[in-house]
Design brief:
This protein has 18 helices and 24 strands. It is an alpha+beta fold and about 600 residues long. The strands form six sheets. It has an eight-stranded mixed beta sheet with strand order 6-9-10-24-23-22-19-12, with helices on both faces. A five-stranded mixed beta barrel has the order 1-2-3-5-4. Helix 5 packs parallel to helix 16.
């Protein structure tokens, strides 16, 4: 018999009854029933109930065993007594009667419990991540992650893609976040950068004649952590294709993404054909370029209605006169809600930095729409009817309002849309609702630098090409860029690339770069474009976010092996840490940290 096990803890079935077997694993739970000990033995594959009584030679030693001790158990498989079966376990109809026990690894007092998946402080969970990873839900999430990645690889291979690995030590690139710099020992005073994405390399692969590339790529960005974004590193399904249009990318990648979600949907519906929503429409109707389509509410622009001369609500009038807008958020059947419902939403809006939402409760009086609420008296009946029609509401419903500068009003309306739908329980949580967001702006205004800058990926092709760059106002230009959104999360982003050298230089010049800047900072890519560059495009899908969604997790740290905490510390390994004087000398570095407060 094998030194440690003849079977795993998830393998035994009724067909094994009467067999002599050997199991090894962790003592998941120990129950003392007065002369009979029950040990639930756990390994990666499952759990088996093991029984030790006073007749067993192992009884005395078994009495010393505690939770999470690693043990080897020998014994005979038998049927569980009638009425004690556990239908939730694959091994739930059998048990192991233990005749021999060996302690392989005793455990000290546990800083957090493994049994039960109880909520526990994150700092403890991350410091003792090796214990946390033994817990059922997190362990299952990590295994689901490996399955998702395997599914992605299989689907990409079936679609004719080849997997390539691109360099980790590279040059700095303007991807929209801070780089992690790596000092060079061989070239004192100079630095490599960890790649924010394999963007330039995957384009260079297209220049090199490889037609379809993909990679499960590690990416590194020095951004502040949050629930849907890791600090430091993350993984993406990185994709590039030659001789393709935007439609070709959609047609190729939509089945891959949909297929992954369908494979791990666990009964939830998955969007059959992803709708395409323009960036402008997304901001107008959903208040976000990451709309949650499980939420049926649609925001409406009611600026013209509140601009009507008959409206006397001066707060909104002044907003409109200053160039702002008014957005309406419907609240179906909210007319039946108590006053506290409306007060709570107004209070929430103030926490978002707004003066409030403003609302009207709609009713019916002799077949015509009437309103009540704080601002209803300032709105004439005909205007109120127009607002109701535009917002898609009627008697018994309510409508909330967000007013201000367009971007801020859209943001507040989008958050209110989410909040109202949650309060009214309108979100259909039994689906993965996916869509494409298209027609992103090519440039945006950088208020800090007081200049035009790239809104997203600087290597994308502007719609209209060189003619558009030469003749159109920069902030009106759109790009061949697109995102995939699922349930309110951006899970993929991509674009058709700008492979024409002169167009590339012109695009960067508008953003404040010179031709020399382009040649120096993106020399490899720029040179490649001089020697026959195929039209190409691609995208990158966030592995971590997709896994988070299919696992139903609320935080990316629930689907990663060894994440950092919110302060960007690795509590398990003690990173970041100070370098030794020797290490600094080898790198020709001298530290100049800011003075402590």
């Amino acid at each position: 018999m094998h030194r440690y096990r003849s079977h795993t803890c998830g393998a035994l079935r009724p067909s094994d009854i009467g067999a002599d077997v050997r199991l090894s694993g962790w003592c998941h739970r120990i129950r003392d029933h007065g002369g009979v000990l029950f040990i639930d033995l756990r390994d990666h594959y499952g759990l088996t109930q093991c029984v030790v009584d006073t007749d067993s030679p192992a009884f005395a030693l078994a009495g010393t065993v505690r939770s999470e001790w690693v043990v080897r158990l020998d014994g005979k498989v038998r049927a569980r007594p009638a009425g004690t079966e556990n239908a939730e376990l694959p091994t739930g109809t059998i048990e192991l009667y233990v005749t021999e026990l060996e302690v392989l690894g005793p455990a000290g007092d546990l800083p957090l419990p493994v049994f039960g998946d109880l909520d526990y402080p994150e700092e403890v969970r991350l410091k003792y991540r090796f214990l946390d990873l033994r817990r059922e839900t997190l362990h299952a999430n990590i295994m689901r992650r490996t399955q998702v990645v395997s599914s992605m690889r299989r689907r990409m291979a079936e679609a004719g893609f080849n997997e390539f690995q691109t360099p980790i030590l590279t040059a700095s690139s303007p991807e929209g976040a801070r780089d992690f710099l790596v000092p060079s020992r061989l070239h004192p005073g100079q630095f490599y950068a960890l790649p924010q994405a394999p963007q330039q390399y995957k384009q260079l692969l297209m220049m090199s004649g490889f037609d379809r590339y993909f990679q499960i790529a590690p990416c590194f960005r020095d951004e502040d952590p949050r629930a849907d974004r890791f600090y430091g590193e993350f993984y993406q399904l990185d994709v590039e294709m030659s001789f393709v249009t935007q439609e070709d990318v959609f047609g190729t990648m939509e089945p891959v993404i949909r297929g992954v979600f369908e494979e791990f949907a666990d009964g939830k519906r998955v969007t059959d054909e992803f709708p395409r929503i323009t960036y402008a429409d997304a901001l107008l109707k959903y208040g976000s370029d990451k709309p949650d389509l499980r939420n049926p509410l649609l925001i409406a622009d009611v600026t013209p209605e509140f601009g009507d001369e008959g409206v006397t609500f001066n707060a909104f009038k002044k907003v409109i006169e200053a160039g702002g807008v008014v957005r309406a958020i419907p609240a179906p059947e909210a007319g039946m809600q108590p006053r506290s419902f409306f007060d709570k939403l107004n209070e929430w809006a103030r926490t978002e930095g707004a003066a409030g939402l403003g609302y009207v409760i709609l009713g019916d009086e002799d077949g015509r729409i009437v309103g009540k609420g704080p601002i209803a008296k300032f709105i004439p009946a005909d205007v109120l009817a127009a607002i109701a029609m535009r917002a898609g509401v009627g008697a018994g419903d309510a409508v909330f309002f967000a007013a201000g500068e367009e971007a801020k009003a859209a943001s507040l309306a989008g958050k209110a849309r989410t909040r109202i739908a949650e309060e009214l329980d309108l979100v259909d949580r039994e689906q993965f609702a996916l869509c494409w967001i298209v027609d992103f702006p090519f440039y945006e205004w950088d208020e800090d630098a007081k200049k035009v800058d790239f809104a997203h990926n600087p290597f994308s092709m502007p719609q209209g090409g060189m003619e558009a760059l030469q003749t159109m106002e920069p902030l009106s230009l759109k790009a061949f860029q697109y995102d995939v959104v699922c349930n309110g999360f951006e899970i993929a982003s991509g674009g058709i690339r700008n492979q024409l050298p002169d167009v590339m230089v012109k695009a960067f010049e508008i953003a404040g770069y010179t031709r020399q800047d382009v040649e120096e900072r993106f020399g490899g890519l720029y040179r490649a474009f001089q020697y026959g560059a195929p039209p190409h495009g691609g995208m990158a899908a966030g592995v971590d976010r997709i896994v988070m969604l299919v696992c139903g997790a609320k935080n990316l740290r629930e689907v990663a092996l060894f994440p950092m905490n919110q302060q960007a510390f690795d509590l398990l390994m003690g990173a970041p840490a100070e370098a030794t004087p020797k290490q600094l000398r080898e790198l020709s570095l001298r530290l100049n940290p800011p003075a402590k407060a």
